[in-house]
Amino acid sequence: MARIGIIGSAGRMGAALAEAIAAAGDVVSGGVDKGDDLAALAAASDVLVDFSAPAALEGNLDAAIAAGVPIVVGTTGLEERHHFLCDNAAESIAVLQTGNTSLGVTLLAHLVREAASRLGEDWDIEITETHHRMKVDAPSGTALLLGEAAAKGRGIDLASSSARGRDGITGARKAGDIGFASLRGGSVAGDHTVYFLGDDERLSLTHLAENRRIFAKGAVRAAQWLIGKPAGRYTMPEVLGL
What we know:
Elements: E1 3-7, H1 12-23, E2 27-32, H2 38-43, E3 47-50, H3 57-67, E4 71-73, H4 80-89, E5 94-97, H5 103-118, E6 124-131, H6 141-154, E7 162-164, E8 178-184, E9 190-198, E10 201-209, H7 213-226, E11 232-234, H8 236-239
Parallel strand pairs: 1-2, 1-3, 3-4, 4-5, 5-11, 6-8, 7-8
Antiparallel strand pairs: 6-9, 9-10
Helix pairs in contact: 1-7, 3-4, 5-6
């Protein structure tokens, strides 16, 4: 029975995590939000799960390091600096950081990488994502995760090969680019499709999230798996043995 601490417990994901932890037969060791005693939570936990905010990540990692407990980071909207912080923390503790904790999305990313590696470069890759009206970052962390999977399959760098926010007279599509489009509205939990568009045929790989419970279930499975692992950076595909 694992003791799982929730960082960002007052949010919608916090509530979903508490339910998922109980359903898995584990124990919520506590929850914290801005201004709460994070050190005490870390000391009382076997593993921490962070769904708070990018600005809080450094302090959350520091608390995990001080307590010597692993941490699952599911916070989205991270920038290069945050990944550097995760790398540093991974020298002392086990860190699993991901743009999406859904097991279905994890498998989708694997399939995207496989497809990108096997289809020729004359197949264009486009990624669309739809989320609720309150989401503040775009493209979503999941869309970027899928873009990275496609880029790895092609053996290219996503940062220099992505096309976002097309508007006006853009000219013809640049060969080799991975395109992104973001839609916002309603209460959509998260829909993602990766299109492979060739001459005379198309392939699309899609994941539809109907409830944020799927992210909570995946995060709990990742947290259980991370307990006892040596210091280092880990990924969701490793949780599934991919």
